[in-house]
Amino acid sequence: MGELGAAISGSGPALGFGRITSSYVPDDVDVVVSTSGSTGIAKEVGISRNALRVSTQASLTYLEAKIGQRWSLLLPLTHIAGVNVLARSLELGTEPIDLRNTENFTNVDFTAIVPTQLYRALNGDSKLLKHLQSAQAVLVGGAALSHSLAHSAREVGINVVTTYGMSETSGGCVYNSKPLPKVDIRINPEGKVQIKGSMLAQTYLNDAQSWNDSFKEGWFTTNDLGTFDNGVLEIIGRSDEIIISGGEKVSLSAIEQSLSKKFPSVQLAACSIASPEWGSTLYIVGEDGSKLAESAIAEHLVEVFGPVAKPKGFFSIPALPLIGVGKVDRHALAQLVRDQGVSQ
């Protein structure tokens, strides 16, 4: 907390979170956060104190937070969402309660979690459930939150606030599908979400060229596909998670969201395996040894997405591999499928 406060105020050196290889930063960078590297080598995102302050103040204003209110820390500090809990606490003049490795929960005003944690709270973790129910608001981000899971949470008294953002935007900049003040959203001709605002990062310390390729005329182009109508942003999936099977396109994210809505009691993930015949073949993997209703799943996917979404196979594993916080590691998932005897 002290080091982050010094970095933000300018009285101390820049502070790095995660695996940082850079040994120095530009003058306008005060916080460095390593991305999860889901699309390749992890990037070191350089964030200015002004960008982090803008993000912090926008979030607290939306939540109607007051000086003296407290956050709990349930996320790793290697992720921007965890760093934001510290920054918001500094702004409120308090210290967050660290609950990352304890079962002794206490009530707080706000917290931030990922969908996986929300799922576990609703499916057996009674202590975490009570903790979330006691909060004035619970930010949920880091990965797509299904409508069914959000609905179930709200039904039991959890005030869920869905968030969308990334390290490059200093964390969540879209709350409950609407941009925070001074955040501009548009969709480019390729269907990708573009974001503009003073909460944007400055650069990638270890890959300035990639940053320059993504940041043009004040707009940052994400890898997320979406729609933006009447001020409401809907994320369809990632452009790098579109597979082509038999010449037809299908989004792995869209498949997972549809399955989550249809089968809310089971955690399911989708991955693809290269196929010389089809290009890519779809596999569905369930967590915790759940008995997969394979025929029902296949029938549902074909009905919604067409024959392209008929799974080639089904597998069950103890836990879905994750990257970052809450995101399914599709590369690791595909390897687990291959380990079951599936060949390319």
TrEMBL record:
Molecular function, one GO term: medium-chain fatty acid-CoA ligase activity
InterPro entries: AMP-bd_C_sf (IPR045851), AMP-dep_synth/lig_dom (IPR000873), ANL_N_sf (IPR042099)
Pfam families attached to this UniProt entry: AMP-binding
GO BP annotation list: fatty acid metabolic process
Gene3D superfamilies registered for this protein in UniProt: 3.30.300.30, N-terminal domain of ligase-like
Domain AMP-dependent synthetase/ligase: 25-179
PANTHER family: 2-SUCCINYLBENZOATE--COA LIGASE, CHLOROPLASTIC_PEROXISOMAL (PTHR43201:SF32), ACYL-COA SYNTHETASE (PTHR43201)
Name of the protein this chain belongs to: Unannotated protein
Species: freshwater metagenome
Phylogenetic classification of the source organism: unclassified sequences, metagenomes, ecological metagenomes
